[in-house]
Specification:
Elements (H helix, E strand, L loop, with lengths): L2 H8 L2 H7 L1 E4 L14 H5 L5 E3 L4 H14 L7 E4 L12 H5 L4 H17 L4 E2 L23 H16 L12 E5 L18 H8 L1 H8 L4 E4 L3 E2 L2 E2 L4 H11 L5 E2 L9 H4 L5 H11 L4 E2 L3 H11 L5 H17 L21 H9 L3 E5 L11 E5 L25 H8 L4 E5 L12 H8 L4 E7 L20 H11 L3 E6 L7 H6 L2 E4 L7 H10 L62 E8 L3 E2 L4 E10 L5 E11 L10 E10 L4 E9 L5 E2 L5 E3 L2 E8 L8 E7 L3 E2 L4 E5 L2
Parallel strand pairs: 1-2, 1-10, 2-3, 3-4, 5-6, 6-9, 12-13, 12-14, 14-15, 15-16, 18-26
Antiparallel strand pairs: 7-8, 11-16, 17-19, 19-22, 20-21, 20-25, 22-28, 23-24, 24-27, 25-26
Helix pairs in contact: 2-13, 6-7, 7-9, 12-13, 15-20, 16-20, 17-18
This protein binds beta-D-glucopyranose.
The site of beta-D-glucopyranose has 9 residues, from loops.
């Protein structure tokens, strides 16, 4: 008998349920009840894993209790949220998504996995794959933005990075795709709120990143807190069992979110914790994170025949299998007790990731900073805000490790006299610092205005109904603009902020998000031109909250906006266009695209289609450009979005150089989920649009024709060559 079968044969009911129990320890608090001392429960075999505990000594001590002092010696699983770095903090995922660079996404996950594994961690609750089109939702910061195609590539890269070739290796950790599903569509952008969506939206937008994660071998899935059409995801038999397990073949562990099983009572689908335990287990939740409901109430659920012994055994088998895949039975201390020194991330990777995440939103010729500058004023509450640079979910990061914007610029501009005043706090009503700050700024040749949110204004439980600048920052900015000196505005935030007035009045506007440890140096690299910015927006940037949800992949209104006709789809008081579209982002160069062509006009589902476009660098410096390919299925049984991203490619160009970018698509890339949500290619015309962002007025277009109807898959490959 193998180790799992012999363990299952030897385990008592209490020991089995113990394996399903994921207990919060006290090193970090990521949920309502915090964590506590678990030694007695570990010794009694009532704990399968611990979350929020890391470090070699602490994890080794807890592991010893499980291995040496329990009847069966089953090792513990140590789990932690490693969303954007472990000890070394990288840019928040939303910012890193803007790099549009799967290799970078993988490298930062690998580096984080190595650090986390060196701290005893074997399972991370990442990547977060919630497509979100609502910047009111604070958790938009943790995910890859608005687009399912990008999110799917993000999922694959992160899972490769975390899990490596072999999840039993010392520096590999298991990944958890979360939050399954549609958490990014919570009503009103309110965290934990209900989700009411069409099945089509689920299949087209919210599920594909999770499907990609499963196909990439993701070890675990975490259901979302929210309900979908009235059924809480923690109890969703249709999506967890029928789709995820039966249809997609996911055989890994499903781990509940923090306290989510207990919250089935709050949802109003269980009348007591016994029913909650039964609902969750029957839906396929293997591990109970932090609610203790399985431990306390599954025995009664079994006695009441609300669950069967085989439900419990299958869950235990999956948990033990995960432990086996991680090599824990071979060596429970593999990631902990080793002669090797803990893995450390080269700071260069953190700096490179950070600058690749900075999005230059506007530039009226002021950036890069001119070399002759001698006096700069750095004004604003985010200029010298070390801890804020980490952003949300930086549990093991050291808030003192970050480089502030002020420090980065001082180091990069040794010949400049730099003065600094915060002016106002990030939030709050005190305006008394505005006048002195403006007085200080008045003598400068250029002002760098550092505005934004604090780290805890995004992430979990951080929804904002008015996602603009908090507190008195706008008044500070107005004071600074009144001086008349050129202003470069930097925005530190976990979401796009609604600041159209700032975009209009600053000479340059830069989204610096939350960039992690290397923030200040990375920002200085971009502002000085040492690094020519490459990031593009992974999410549309709204003008006002009233436009939300706003995203590029909309379907056509029955009456598209037309200024000449009052009876068309428009706001009376605002443009329907975002301030900056998906894919927007400037560099210090200027690339023009021309000559879009394809190697064929007609295709079937198995045909390969090569689409090429020439990119000309008309600027003065070398540049790296990102080129997006969208499709539009003109007529279909189900109305298709006006644009759907199917590929992107990057090309590096010297000044004056022309390069050719080749996109290799399969006919299957043109399919869509039919009435039963199976991929289908319908015959008919497709427009291929290629451009630098999702602004439909600035795209090159050619038309191709699918010749026959066929079932299909969604494969696509992309190569860029010069
Ligand atoms: C969050 C999860 C996280 C868990 C453990 C919950 O509150 O929703 O994303 O993985 O806590 O920290």
């Amino acid at each position: 008998m193998d180790v799992i079968n012999s363990l299952l044969a030897a385990m008592t009911l209490e020991e089995k349920i113990g394996q399903l129990n994921l207990v919060a320890a006290g090193q970090a608090v990521t949920g309502p009840a915090g964590g506590g001392e678990a030694s007695a429960d570990i010794r009694a075999g009532r704990v399968g894993g611990l979350l929020n505990l890391w470090g070699r000594d602490t994890t080794a001590a807890a592991q010893r209790l499980a291995v040496e002092e329990t009847r069966l010696g089953i090792p513990l699983l140590f789990c932690l949220d490693v969303l954007h770095g472990h000890r070394t903090i990288f840019p928040i995922p939303l910012a890193e998504a803007g790099a549009f660079d799967p290799l970078l996404w993988e490298r930062t996950a690998r580096a984080a996995a190595m650090e986390a594994a060196s701290d005893g961690i074997a399972l991370t609750f990442a990547p977060m794959l919630d497509v979100s089109r609502d910047p009111r939702w604070g958790r938009i910061a943790e995910g890859p933005g608005e687009d399912p195609f990008v999110a799917a590539r993000f999922a694959e890269a992160k899972i490769r990075g975390f899990q490596g070739e072999n999840s039993a290796a010392r520096y590999s950790i298991a990944a958890t795709a979360k939050h399954f599903c549609a958490a990014g569509a919570v009503t009103g952008g309110l965290d934990y709120a209900a989700v009411d969506l069409s099945e089509r939206a689920l299949h087209e937008v919210y599920l594909p990143p999770f499907h990609a994660a499963v196909a990439a071998g993701c070890a675990a899935i975490m259901p979302a807190y929210n309900s979908v059409a009235g059924i809480p995801m923690t109890a969703h038999i249709g999506l967890l069992r029928r789709l995820l397990r039966d249809k997609w073949g996911f055989d890994g562990v499903i781990v509940s979110d923090y306290n989510a099983i207990a919250e089935l009572l709050q949802h109003g689908v269980a009348s007591d914790p016994v029913e909650a335990a039964a609902l969750a287990l029957r839906a396929g939740i293997d591990m109970d994170m932090a609610s203790g409901v399985y431990g306390r109430y599954l025995p009664e659920a079994l006695a009441r025949q609300l669950v069967g012994q085989e439900d419990i055994d299958s869950a235990v088998r999956r948990v033990l299998t995960l432990k086996q895949r991680l090599g824990l039975f071979e060596d429970p201390y593999r990631r902990i007790e080793t002669a090797e020194s803990p893995a450390a991330v080269p700071i260069e990777l953190a700096r490179d990731a950070a600058r690749r995440a900075i999005t230059l939103l506007t530039n009226r010729g002021i950036l890069p900073l001119p070399a002759h500058l001698r006096r700069i004023a750095i004004i604003g509450p985010l200029a010298d805000a070390r801890a804020e640079m980490m952003g949300p979910w930086a549990l093991a990061g050291n808030p003192n490790d970050g480089v502030t914007i002020l420090e980065g610029l001082k180091a990069a501009l040794p010949n400049c006299e730099i003065t600094f005043a915060a002016g106002v706090a990030i939030d709050g009503e005190d305006k008394s610092g505005i006048e002195p700050a403006c007085g200080l700024a008045a003598g400068a040749e250029l002002i760098i205005l550092c505005l934004g949110e604090s780290a805890d204004m995004s992430g979990e439980a951080a929804s904002r109904a008015m996602p603009g600048l908090p507190g008195r920052q706008r008044e500070l900015a107005e004071g600074v603009f009144a001086i008349g000196t050129p202003v470069v505005a930097l925005l530190s935030s976990g979401r796009p902020l609604t600041v159209p007035w700032l975009a209009e009045r600053a000479q340059a506007l830069v989204a610096t998000w939350f960039l992690g440890d290397a923030a200040g140096h990375a920002i200085a690299d971009v502002l000085t031109g040492r690094f020519n910015p490459t990031a593009r927006l992974p999410v549309a940037w709204p003008r006002e909250a009233g436009q939300i949800p706003i995203f590029y992949a909309a379907r056509s209104p029955s009456r598209p906006a037309n200024a000449a006709d009052p009876y068309t789809s428009k706001y009376l008081d605002l443009s329907t266009e975002p301030l900056f579209p998906f894919g927007h982002g400037l560099s210090y160069s200027l690339v023009r695209l021309e000559n879009l062509r394809a190697n064929r006009k007609e295709f079937g589902v198995h045909d390969k289609i090569e689409v090429e476009v020439d990119a000309i660098n008309e600027g003065q410096c070398s540049t790296e450009e990102t080129i997006f390919l969208f499709i539009h299925d003109l007529v279909a049984r189900v109305a298709r979005p006006l644009l759907e991203l199917k590929a992107w490619a990057k090309v590096e160009l010297a000044p004056g150089q022309t390069g050719t970018v080749t996109f290799a698509l399969m006919g299957g890339s043109f399919c869509y989920p039919d009435e039963t949500f199976a991929p289908v290619l319908e015959p008919g015309s497709f427009d291929i649009h290629v451009g630098l962002n999702a602004d439909r007025n600035a795209l090159l277009t050619i038309r191709l024709h699918a010749v026959s109807e066929a079932a299909a898959s969604y494969a696509v490959s992309v190569t860029a060559k010069i």
